[in-house]
Amino acid sequence: MSFKIKENTLIARCQGENQSSSEKHYTFSNVFEDNVSQAEVYDCCIRPTIRPTLGEPGATFLTYGTSGSGKTYTLLGNEGQPGIVPRSIEQIYEELYDHISTEPSLKMECMKPIPLSDESVLDELRKLRTIKTRLGQGCEESQTIISDIIQSQHQFQPLDMGDKRVFIWISFVEIYNENVYDLLNLDGDYGKRKPMKVLSNDGNAFIKGLSTLYAGTKEDAYNLLQYGLQSATYGATDVNSNSSRSHSIFTVTVITHSVSTQRISQSVYKFCDLAGSERLKKTGTFGDRLKEAQKINTSLLVLGRCLETVHKNQKTKKIHDLVPVRDSKLTMIIQSALLGKEPMTMIVNVYPTEEFYDENLNVLNFSSIAKQIVISKQPKILKAPHSTRYSFFLSQAMGSPSSKIDTNQLLVEYEK
Fold this sequence. Notes:
416 residues; Kinesin; cytoplasm; microtubule binding; nucleotide-binding
């Protein structure tokens, strides 16, 4: 199978057939050669969409393709070539550096801002310390290398945000066999983890009982990413010996609070690594692996139907079809993007071989529709709740991060 790139169009042609009848054209926002750098992909596809200072709702980023096509590499990369998630972490923390509160004093629960008590703040800091302990030594050096590489390639600069304070929370889930699991749960035994319920409120999804941990520094964010990855489910298939058998979604929530106007906005960034799409006979699957592949393909089919329905609805003024976001856990969680409430970026990885001709065409048919979805709604700006506790924490949070009390010392004193 041969691929040709003509500007932003990918031309796919199966070798040995009548060239004109078997040639298919797919248009995307951008099409990259195989030698493109991670930095170029990020600057082109991701960087312009991450704008938490403007109070925009956020964005959803998907990597999609057949097993072994490089989805996880695009998303996470490696130490020498970091992917879009570590680059996004660097951008968010470098640009908001002077305004990020070191203490987790404000949280969003079910779309409402909740000021945390002193005890809750200490509890959140204790969770971070537990994760750092479980990860052990050696993480810091790798994080520093990654951070230095990214900063040298992008030169992110701190933004002037006036009197705004920022609170950053992170969650990490995987969808395995149509069950949602919390990858940052510190309490339960991993072997006995429980599926979680996905609930919906006005087109916004939330997961009941999900661990959302505070990340006051980019080191915290890297630690949470690393801890979640260690919990993810992997299983070997004949296509890819380390093929992810689950969809995973890493979410960064940036809460911005303006002290002068008492207004709160949140930007939610979801990074989704979709499980590999392939036909069952190619993967050599049976038993549990067969069940996994069927569940994976079902959820990807639902995602495709959602994209097609949204596209069709936007082209006509007649009665709108219902977007079937409730038909899979994946589409429920990313429904705000599928319903046009926030931008969605899909990065499609193609493994250009004759053997994967049908799979690649399915991937391209599916993903070329995503380009047509447009954002339609204005973000909600929330008013800060009035309480003495809230006023107290605001006065505390207004100090610069460097002048804050030592939170580790606070924890030690509290435990004594």
